[in-house]
Specification:
Blueprint (H helix, E strand, L loop, with lengths): L4 E5 L2 E2 L6 H16 L7 E4 L1 H9 L6 H18 L2 E2 L5 E2 L1 E7 L9 E5 L5 H9 L2 H18 L5 H15 L9 H19 L7 H15 L3 H9 L8 E7 L10 E6 L11 E6 L3 H6 L5 E2 L2 H7 L6 H4 L1 H18 L3 E8 L2 E9 L4 H13 L5 H7 L6 H4 L2 E2 L6 E5 L1 E4 L2 E7 L2 H9 L4 E5 L7 H6 L2 E4 L7 H9 L3 E3 L4 E4 L4 E4 L2 E4 L3 E5 L4 E4 L4 E2 L5 H13 L3 E5 L3 H9 L5 E5 L7 H12 L3 H25 L4 E5 L13 H11 L3 H10 L12 H6 L1 H22 L4 E6 L5 H22 L6 E6 L2 H5 L1 H4 L5 E4 L1 H9 L7 H9 L16 H15 L4 E4 L7 H10 L3 E4 L4 H15 L1
Parallel strand pairs: 4-5, 17-18, 18-19, 19-20, 27-28, 27-34, 28-29, 29-30, 30-31, 31-32, 32-33, 33-34
Antiparallel strand pairs: 1-2, 1-3, 3-8, 6-7, 6-8, 9-10, 9-12, 10-11, 12-13, 14-26, 15-25, 16-20, 17-24, 21-22, 22-23, 24-25
The structure holds phosphoenolpyruvate (PEP) and magnesium ion.
Length: about 900
């Protein structure tokens, strides 16, 4: 027969081996604390398996459970020497929920259970405190009516308020025993009116009612929502903990409190917590009375007057501090604790691993490893890699007030305040004058790059997590909120509306790229600290990591940032990002709009020296490291002129009429540019473009080898390949150019030619493509777009609904769709390796900076991941954690 009840306390333990899955987090740790000799009120846990069975059986309890629960109560009676329902000296119990992981405030609790019209008089006699006894009964009726009987909570609150008003009191504590006794009568009348029956007097009925209510609260609406938001399976169920009550409200030698063994905000090794004298647990959370500090140091720091626990109850405090140390040693982590002091005796009511900020997580992990409490590898495994983001960018001061206008997607972390501007040129102009600006666009395009660079932050109304704005902002380390759908932007009038509010150019707003919030006005920020602990953890991570970490970067400044963050090469240099410079755009446009090879070559000749300079700078910064340069990729329309003045400029440079130019621009219009004339299709139709780029790469490489003696390692990458033949043609252009340059320069440089895998066909035909390409880089932005048939720039509008409805577990543009896109990657890796065992495999889509996707890359045995500069440390830590998991 399955055992559903596990006892703890008073030297008895039914084991369960601290099994959180079976006993829930609270139950497992109550048993754990009791087992190491800490003062835990005796009790028992009804398992999570019972909860599951309860629902399977149609919300009824099996007969056998009654006997097990009766034994559990007998155990508590044995240890406490009190009897449940005893008129002379009654045993009172608490009934609390406790799932595998804590779901704070989501499920139900009943305290002081076991009181009725008779036992309350026993409690008066046994405690010698009539006020305490009647207050406990009043609290019990109120809680039970709310949680178990589901009566109108407000009417009980109201009755309490009236009782106080009648006497001219403001505090509950001013009510006398007689007042409370009268209030109990009022409460009982309320129950009868609303429930149609008198308040249950049988203590066993009370107990079963409470147990049923706790199991019932597992399926409450708020618990379901919480589970959905936190990925907690509904099948887990909750346990129920029934435990002898101890009282923190038995006078001035009693107290109740909550504590952390280290500071959960900073990680500092100092006890941190609050307590209240003469109070019960819910008073601390209810916020009616202001709790006092635990330690004298904390009280003094805060400049507070009321005595700390260290000062008010010195002996109990010393005992509590000893318990903190024992718990940390036992659980080997920072603990979040609830305790009660009953007439000078300390009781532990709960312990669990405490929630903490990213900063505290880092400090606690490194400190604990240095203290010898955990290993370096455990420290590495404990810090949430994604949360490192919080440490690498300025973040909003959590204490600062905010006036939230709207919320979009948290596209690039960090917080920024500045004047609203609606176009890139104004952004640049104001930034040059030293103004902080936030660039607000419906969506951004490569033409906005200079404005994005000049801005402190970027806000768009459209676009998802891999939209242009998001990708570029992450690369630059600029905070960005994208896809804020409720923004109505009028670029001409230079205003935007959000609901009934209007924001004009020049108004100050603040964006939080970590939460997606957009706020009116300036909100104070706090600067990141990359000091000691961060560096230490990175060193430990690098010791266990297998995957290499590269960066996606195309400016020397970004390359430098990435190297400082530990990048081991460039995994993706998007050359089109280099074409938007004001000095080049006219030549680029001339190249695109030319209708003959001759016209194109004339423009390319102007671009060659510029590109050579770009590559030389990057090779210099990345000395000795591999640099993957991708040949021109994006759809041509992105480069086309829009304004009259732009047409005029290009017409003059190319020596053709404006009308002629406009006709050509019209011809280039595409209905679906993402699937249009882009990627290697450009190189196939206009090989001279790739020829110019290859020449610039090899000339720069030779020049740098000449200058510094250290030859760079160029990896020339061809985008959007679908067939072996495309790559063959492009490789031929690259090799021929290399040969020519090496002959001219009188030296050779080692280089590789490879391809991106961005199309399902390329993944399927990877075996053949590997006959030509020496490396594959998975472009998972496009591979996700093309495999799912979902436009990466339009996905924002409906993907959230898809995630809410569980169609995808997470946004597939953020975290790899392992089952679909992942399968194509595995298959391509396998087929590529079968052809070319030493083929180099990497990933350079945005997923390269996402910890879950990095874990997938580790499993698939890729050689490296490539992430935007500010995500390099995240990738290093995530790669280390994935390697540890694989051990
Ligand atoms: C990709 O498609 O994943 C990729 C890295 O290329 P881009 O984002 O430039 O299209
Ligand atoms: Mg791509």
């Amino acid at each position: 027969m399955t055992k559903y009840v596990y006892r703890f306390g008073g030297g008895v333990s039914d084991g369960g081996q601290g099994d959180k899955n079976l006993l829930g987090g609270k139950g497992a740790n109550l048993d754990g604390m009791a087992s190491i000799g800490l003062p835990v009120p005796p009790g028992f846990t009804i398992t999570t398996e019972m909860c599951t069975r309860y629902y399977d059986d149609g919300e009824v309890f099996p007969e056998s459970l009654r006997e097990e629960v009766a034994n559990g109560i007998a155990h508590i009676e044995g240890v406490t020497g009190k009897k449940f329902g005893d008129v002379a000296d009654p045993l009172l119990v608490s009934v609390r929920s406790g799932a595998r992981v804590s779901m704070p405030g989501m499920m139900d609790t009943v305290l002081n259970l076991g009181l009725n019209d008779e036992t309350v008089t026993g409690l008066v006699a046994a405690s010698g405190d009539a006020r305490f006894a009647w207050d406990s009964y009043r609290r019990f009726i109120q809680m039970y009516s709310d949680v178990v009987l589901e009566l109108d909570h407000g009417s009980f609150e109201e009755a309490l308020e009236i009782a106080k008003e009648d006497k001219g009191f403001t505090l509950d504590t001013e009510l006398s025993a007689e007042d409370l006794q009268a209030l109990v009568s009022t409460y009982k009348k309320l129950v009868e009116e609303q429930w149609g029956k008198p308040f249950p007097q049988d203590v066993n009925d009370q107990l079963w009612g409470a147990v049923g209510a706790v199991f019932g609260s597992w399926q409450s609406e708020r618990a379901k929502v919480y589970r959905r938001l936190n990925d907690i399976p509904g099948g887990w169920g909750t346990a129920v903990n029934v435990q002898a009550m101890v009282f923190g409200n038995m006078g001035d030698t009693s107290a109740t409190g909550v504590a952390f063994t280290r500071d959960p905000a900073t990680g500092e090794r100092a006890y941190y917590g609050e307590f209240l004298i003469n109070a019960q647990g819910e008073d601390v959370v209810a916020g009616i009375r202001t709790p006092q500090y635990l330690t004298r140091q904390a009280r003094e720091r805060a400049g507070a007057k009321p005595a700390s626990m260290e000062e008010a109850m010195p002996e109990t405090y010393v005992e509590l501090a000893r318990v903190f140390d024992l718990l940390e040693t036992h659980y080997r982590d920072m603990q979040d604790i609830e305790f009660t002091v009953e007439r000078g005796k300390l009781w532990m009511l709960q312990t669990r691993s405490g929630k903490r900020t990213a900063k505290a997580a880092l400090k606690i992990a490194v400190d604990m490893a240095n203290e010898g409490l955990i290993t370096e590898a455990e420290a590495v495994a404990r810090v949430d890699a994604a949360a490192l983001d919080q440490l690498l960018h300025p973040t909003l001061d959590p204490k600062a007030p905010r006036d939230v206008l709207t919320k979009g997607l948290p596209a690039s972390p960090g917080a920024a305040s500045g004047q609203v501007v609606f176009d890139a040129d104004t952004a640049e102009r104001l930034a040059e004058m030293g103004e902080a600006v936030i660039l607000v666009r419906v969506e951004t395009s490569p033409e906005d790059i200079h404005g994005m660079h000049a801005a402190k932050g970027i806000l768009t109304a459209r676009g998802g997590m891999t939209s242009h704005a998001a990708v570029v902002a992450r690369g630059m380390g600029r905070p960005c909120v994208s896809g804020a759908g409720s923004l109505a932007i009028d670029s001409k009038a230079k205003t935007m509306r959000i609901g009934s509010r209007e924001v004009k150019e020049g108004d100050i707003i603040t964006i939080d790229g970590a939460s997606g919030e957009v706020m009116f006005g300036s909100v104070a920020t706090v600067q990141p600290e990359l000091a000691g602990d961060f560096g230490t953890l990175m060193v430990w991570a690098d010791k266990v990591r297998r995957l290499k970490v590269r960066t996606n970067a195309e400016t020397p400044a970004d390359c430098r940032t990435a190297r400082e963050f530990g990048a081991e090469g460039i995994g993706l240099c998007r050359t089109e990002h280099m074409f938007f410079d004001a000095a080049r755009i006219t030549a680029v446009r001339q190249m695109i709009l030319a209708d003959s090879e001759k016209g194109r070559r004339a423009a390319l000749d102007k671009l060659l020296p510029e590109q050579r300079k770009d590559f030389a700078e990057i090779f210099e910064v990345m000395a000795g490291l591999p640099v993957t340069i991708r040949l021109l990729d994006p759809p041509l329309h992105e480069f086309l002129p829009h304004q009259e003045s732009e047409f005029a400029e290009v017409a003059q440079a190319a020596g053709v009429s404006v009308d002629e130019l406009k006709r050509r621009a019209n011809e280039l219009h595409e209905f679906n540019p993402m699937l249009g004339h882009r990627g290697c299709r450009l190189g196939v139709t206009y090989p001279e473009i790739y020829e110019m780029q290859a020449r610039a790469i090899f000339e720069a490489a030779c020049d740098i080898a000449e200058k510094s003696g250290a030859a760079p390692i160029p990896e020339v990458m061809v985008p959007l390949v679908a067939t072996k033949r495309e790559l063959e043609l492009m490789k031929d252009v690259i090799d021929t150019t290399a040969k020519a340059v090496f002959a001219e320069k009188g030296r050779t440089i080692d280089y590789l030619v490879g391809t991106m895998i961005e199309l399902p066909r390329a993944a399927l035909k990877a075996g053949e493509i590997a006959e030509v390409g020496a490396f594959f880089s998975f472009g998972t932005n496009d591979l996700t777009q093309t495999t799912l048939g979902v436009s990466r720039d339009d996905a924002g509008r409906f993907l959230t609904t898809y995630v809410d409805k569980g169609i995808f577990p997470r946004d597939p543009f953020v975290s790899i769709d392992v089952e679909g896109v992942g399968q194509l990657i595995e298959l391509a890796a396998e087929r590529g390796r079968a052809t070319r065992p030493d083929i180099k495999l990497g990933i350079c889509g945005e997923h390269g900076g996402d910890p879950a996707s990095i874990a997938f890359c580790e499993q698939t045995g890729l050689d490296y991941v490539s992430a935007s500069p500010y995500r390099v440390p995240i990738a290093r830590l995530a790669a280390a954690q994935a390697a540890l998991k694989a051990r």
